[in-house]
Design a protein that fits this description.
- The complex is a heterodimer of chains A (about 500) and B (about 100).
- Chain A is of the alpha+beta class.
- Chain A is elongated, with a radius of gyration of 30 Å.
- The mean pLDDT of chain A is about 90.
- Chain B has a domain of about 40 residues.
- Chain B is mainly alpha-helical.
- In chain B, helix 1 crosses helix 2.
- The chains are: A alpha+beta (about 500), B mainly alpha (about 100).
């Protein structure tokens, strides 16, 4: 009988913390787009005689993240030196945390296939980032180079390393874990969580457990720069590792690098000693004491967590799981929704408009919902007009468009668009209806002959009328006038 | 732990220090002396003492998050053995060869 396999995945996620200065010196952290080697000082260049000075804000952000993950905060923790030689590390050691991290033992729920699953968090520790190695040449060639270039602007940026328990069983669960963690750090404002720019980096550990009792060696995959790349790398490793085990071989415990363009992982050259980091306590930093006041302050600063919000939107508000997920994805969007509803708008209409119209505007402009030129209350007023029937959805969309493009209030935006609630009545409306029915003889004919049992054609025609009159009549009135026109047409036919 | 040639040679490899064979023996003796000293210290009764306690027992001071620009990039680049534009130039390193980043 062919044996079956279970995949075991654990992730290490490095999150760049959104501080203004580096972890152990006052150099600015806005290295993206900065000239190389301009954000450096004697400390982060590792010059002899310098001493590290711990950034209190990074401790706060680390503690805040750890609390959101349900971790226990260590009131006393320590920094260690992790020794290795590599040109991106100016001191030849990285100041990190080892056996006494700032936080341990938490968990985070992820939703996979409609099911909620808790993934254990082993630890969260603080450490400094390394510099950036630039391998390529100006013409993009890698081979034939006898030099690499180093930029130390990134050296010393504070990182929170979040280590999960090996609780994930599929690449899909790993993806949801990363997406959930990214959403969390964005909610908390502790990081922009951008994988593309390297603010959030993932190393994945994966192994196979065979039904015959064998365990494959654990493989650490590095160099995954996107969620998609991580999934592909994990899929590749599952196939590779199972293949080895099925043919009676042994999966070697090692580090492998993902080659995105080739779609394969490759073994890093075996450097046994590279993993002998000779950790020892950092003698230049006394123990880190996290006091009750700091833990309390960070606890109080936590927003409603994204997974709590998502479940509340579903269970209390009755939104569909998909809508609840979309609307809780961004804190700014979720808060805009809640404020709109708090101002009196209905939950369903507000949710509908915000997940479509508002999200579209935000995606187009890159704005935060808080930066929109109109407030949730004003959106609530606009939706009120829709509910009253004085503005159609179409007209309200036009008005909203002008409100955000020109920063106008509702009334001015209506004037600007030429939309007058209830501005098309009587003869004007009747003529518009006739124009639409005449121009769409086929659909009209089907409705007239009773060949439209589902009413789809009838609805289609009504939509065209609403567009024709730019929504300047209540839907009920339009419907009534269409009925009247159809009656007259039937009368003529008879 | 007994200090022998193997340990000294491994420590040298890890520290990227080249050692001539004669020096290895000297270093073995140095290390043995150092370890010997710690063996003496080990005789102290440290029951109930936190292994990480420090003399001052002061917690780590926390710095405020106000940025300071040093503007020493050029000076540092000029002091380096090699620079290429605004970069420090180092021997070629294939991305797959290095140890774990961060």
């Amino acid at each position: 009988m062919t044996p079956s396999f279970e995949t075991v995945i654990g992730l290490e996620v490095h999150v760049q913390l959104a501080t203004a200065t580096k972890l152990f010196c006052s150099c600015p952290t806005d290295y993206i787009g900065s000239e190389p080697n301009t954000l450096v000082c004697p400390v982060c260049l590792g010059l002899p005689g310098t001493l590290p000075s711990l950034n209190g804000r990074s401790v706060e952000l680390g503690v805040k993240t750890a609390l959101a993950l349900g971790c226990s905060i260590s009131r006393t923790s320590r920094f260690h030196r992790k020794n290795y030689f590599y040109p991106d590390l100016p001191k030849a050691f990285q100041i990190s945390q080892y056996d006494l991290p700032v936080a341990t033992g938490g968990s985070m729920p992820v939703f996979v296939g409609g099911e909620k699953k808790f993934i254990g968090i082993t630890r969260l520790h603080l450490e400094e980032d390394a510099g950036k190695l630039v391998h390529g040449t100006a013409d993009g060639r890698l081979s034939g180079r006898s030099f690499s270039n180093v930029d130390y602007n990134r050296a010393g940026i504070p990182l929170a390393e979040i280590v999960s328990e090996p609780d994930m069983r599929s690449p899909e669960e790993a993806r949801e874990y990363v997406l959930t963690l990214r959403r969390l750090v964005r909610y908390l404002g502790v990081s922009d969580g951008d994988m593309e720019s390297g603010s959030l980096r993932v190393d994945a550990n994966i192994s196979q457990k065979c039904s015959d009792g064998r365990w494959g060696g654990r493989v650490e995959i590095k160099n995954v720069n996107s969620v998609r790349a991580m999934e592909r790398a994990l899929d590749f490793e599952i196939t590779r590792q199972r293949g080895i085990m099925l043919s009676g071989g042994t999966v070697v415990q090692e580090t492998r690098h993902w080659d995105d363009s080739a779609g394969v992982t490759r073994s890093s050259r075996g450097k046994e000693e590279a993993h002998d980091y000779r950790y020892f306590p950092e003698p230049d930093l006394p123990p880190l004491i996290v006091n009750d006041a700091l833990v309390r302050a960070m606890g109080e600063s936590l927003p409603e967590l994204p997974w709590v919000k998502r479940e509340r939107f579903e269970t209390e508000w009755g939104l569909s799981p998909e809508d609840a997920a979309v609307l809780s994805e961004r804190l700014d969007l979720a808060e805009f929704l809640e404020s709109t509803v708090a101002s009196g708008a209905g939950r369903d209409i507000a949710a509908n408009w915000i997940k479509t119209e508002i999200l579209r505007i935000l995606n187009e402009t890159g704005l935060d919902a808080g930066d929109l030129p109109f407030t949730p209350r004003v959106l609530g007023e606009l939706l009120g007009e829709v509910v009253k029937g004085s503005l159609s959805n179409t007209a309200a969309r036009d008005v909203l468009e002008v409100m955000y493009r020109k920063g106008l209030g509702i009334q001015d935006a209506m004037k600007e668009t030429g939309v007058v609630p209830g501005g098309v009545t009587g003869d004007l409306l009747a003529k518009a209806v006739r124009r639409v029915l005449d121009a769409n003889r086929e659909e009209t004919g089907l409705v007239l002959s009773g060949a439209d049992p589902s009413g789809k054609k009838r609805k289609y025609l009504q939509g065209l009328v609403m567009r024709e009159i730019r929504g300047q009549a209540p839907v009920g009135d339009v419907s009534a006038v269409i009925d009247e026109a159809l009656r007259q047409m039937r009368g003529l036919d008879e | 732990m007994e200090i022998d040639r193997k340990i000294v040679e491994r420590a040298a490899t890890l520290s990227r220090i080249e050692m001539v064979p004669d020096n290895v023996e000297t270093m073995v003796r140095f290390f043995q002396d150092i370890i010997g000293h710690f063996r003496i210290l080990e005789k102290c009764d440290t029951t109930g003492v936190d292994p990480f306690s420090t003399l001052e027992d002061e917690p780590c001071p926390l710095r405020g998050d106000g940025p300071v620009r040093w503007d020493i990039g050029d000076e540092a680049l000029d002091s380096a053995p090699l620079r290429e534009g605004r970069f420090f130039r180092v021997p070629a390193i294939g991305s797959e060869e290095g140890p774990d980043e961060a």
